[in-house]
Amino acid sequence: MTKILIIDDEEKLLTLLTKILSLEGFEVLQAPDSKSALKKLEQSDIDVVLCDVKLPDGNGVELSKKIKSNYPLVEIILLTAYGNIPDGVQAIKNGAFDYITKGDDNNKIIPLLYRAKEKVDLAKRVKQLEKQLGDRHSFKSILGKSKAILAAIELANKVSGTDTTVLLTGETGTGKEVFAQAIHQASNRNNKHFVAINCSAFSKEILESEMFGYKAGAFTGANKDKIGLFEEANGGTIFLDEIGEMSLPLQAKLLRAVEAGEFIKVGDSKSTRIDLRIISATNRDLQEEIENGTFRKDLFYRLSAFQIKLPALRERLVDIEILANHFVNSFSAKTNKKIKPLSKPFIETLKQYSWNGNIRELKNVIERSVILSDVDELSTDTLPAEFETIIAASKSGKQLSAFDLASAEKIHIQKVLNYTNGNKTKAAELLNIALTTLYRKLDDYNIG
């Protein structure tokens, strides 16, 4: 129910307005002066205030400024016995919804209240949606309880309150953009844009235009000015994913943007100033790229003031059950299915896989299983072909245990083969055995 606070020292008017507004279905509270009104606002969730301009202990115009400062969602309608244009102008400047004269404008009060109520309801809905969006991109959205992921979250949380550049490293699919969004959401820039760009998705010419924009006539087809993503993110955060894919000439331009806080658009002659936070990410070894001459050392040190390495999924096996069940719930809702939490055998099968694609691959595997399942519990039969050896070993009874060396070796070889995408030469190198030895073990363990 909408709550209305009437602030007026005229007892008859208070009684009359209270009766009228109560009949309209509003919950009405009363206050004879500023002091008691502020106390009522502290104690109750007020939606709209009806306030007299002249109060025993102050002025309603000034009080409206204080109320809007402390309770920005509250709408205020000021009432006065004498129309005064300067007061009305100042009231609106102070954030009042409207300013009306008592007696002459009594018929306006109810319609005004409903309009003010609509504005309050909309503002509350927007705030609720903003909170939901904020929660979705906050550190709360990062699932897991392993030491590796908790350590990464702690580092990211600590750096989020600064404007320091952050470099996120780790394999593909470990959640680097999720971390970048969480850092932005926890920063003092969270009311501004978070803009992400994948540097590997564009050619070097197009990437420069996407990042910094261009002026009309800069090249054939540039018919009008284009605002780049750096300018769009001004005041907020820009996330540069796969930064290791950027060409050396563009790296030089990015370095200037980082150092000087300005850049020159393609085809422009003057600089554009920016104030934003840069978070970058890569799955490459940038130190190695520096040695190979494909990445600038000075840019690396500018972007990597604070580094966070995100763990691979195989380094946080305890989190697989949490993540997998989360994806089950998500895809069950999307497909209108009611799938039970994953069984222990299903979870154990997932834990024995290598997960080269990390969380992204796990998400895809669970989505596939949910789509294929015709019952309310996922079966290992819905898992893709890459799991066949693990499932076969489980069904044969040769499960991994501390006393079963052959089973452990078989599963380990399968994990390495999964990691190398079936490349036996590379697998033999990683296992530190001869290729002929690997082929013999594949035959012994009946691994295809």
Structure overview:
The chain contains 19 helices and 16 strands. Helix 3 packs parallel to helix 4 and helix 17 crosses helix 18. A five-stranded parallel sheet has the order 2-1-3-6-7, sandwiched between helices. By secondary structure, it is an alpha/beta fold. The protein has three domains: 130 residues, Response regulator (Rossmann fold), CATH 3.40.50; 173 residues, Rossmann fold; 131 residues, Helicase, Ruva Protein, domain 3. The chain is 48% helix and 14% strand. The model has no long low-confidence stretch (mean pLDDT 88).
Q: What order do the strands of the largest sheet run in, or round the barrel if closed?
A: 2-1-3-6-7
Q: Which CATH-level-2 architecture of the largest domain?
A: 3-Layer(aba) Sandwich
Overall pLDDT, averaged?
88
Uncertain runs are none
* Structural class designation: alpha/beta
Shape call: extended
CATH homologous group name of the largest domain? P-loop containing nucleotide triphosphate hydrolases
- CATH class value of the largest domain: Alpha Beta
Figure out the total of helices: 19
Gap from first CA to last CA: 68 Å
Computed over alpha carbons, the radius of gyration is: 31 Å
CATH topology of the largest domain: Rossmann fold
Helix content: 40-55%
Strand-residue proportion? 5-15%
Question: What profile does the largest beta sheet have?
Answer: 5 strands, parallel
The overall strand count is: 16
List the domain count as a whole number. 3
